[in-house]
Amino acid sequence: MKNKAFVVLAPAALLLSACTTVEPAYKDIGTRVGPCVTGGPDSVAQEFYDLRIQQPGQGLPDATRLARYRPYLSDALYQKLLTASNQNADRSHLNALDLFSSLPAGPSSADVADASTIPNTDARNIPLRVQLKRDGDKAVSWQDEVLMVRDGTCWAVDDVRYLASWPHAGGGTLSQTIEN
Fold first, then answer.
1. What is the mean pLDDT of the chain?
2. pTM for the predicted model, two decimal places
3. Which of 25, 73, 116, 145 would be a feasible disulfide site paired with 122, CB 3.0-4.6 Å?
4. Domains of the chain and CATH, by start
């Protein structure tokens, strides 16, 4: 009796196990033109903000600074910044802004939220909260959101959403600020 049940149930079990195979939602995750930084979205974002704090700068990045940022930026954001910095249009209103945070003076410290709860490797973009702080006579703390995207096999910064309670002169996101 036991052998007969095994003979009947074994093929059914094999058939059911074949049905549970999960295929990735995106088989081709694209290619990346520029160099990249290895790591998950949170570690790449933290490294980017650490670099920004070590070498602060306001306004559109010049060619040297943009080259330093390149491994951390998505191909799309890099091209937007490159185009904006090469345009002859008057961009002087951006010179007093930190484009990568809500506060015009920029942060003196940044703590990127942990992305350890990424559901699977199919994720193509992940918004991460960043706790920012500016030390000084009047210390200020705020949160922004950095959008991390998968560029090929790398994670890269694709945009920044300004979430502070005060308005950003350029708009609600880094991309809007560049385009305006």
1. 80
2. 0.77
3. 25
4. 29-114+124-179 (3.10.450)
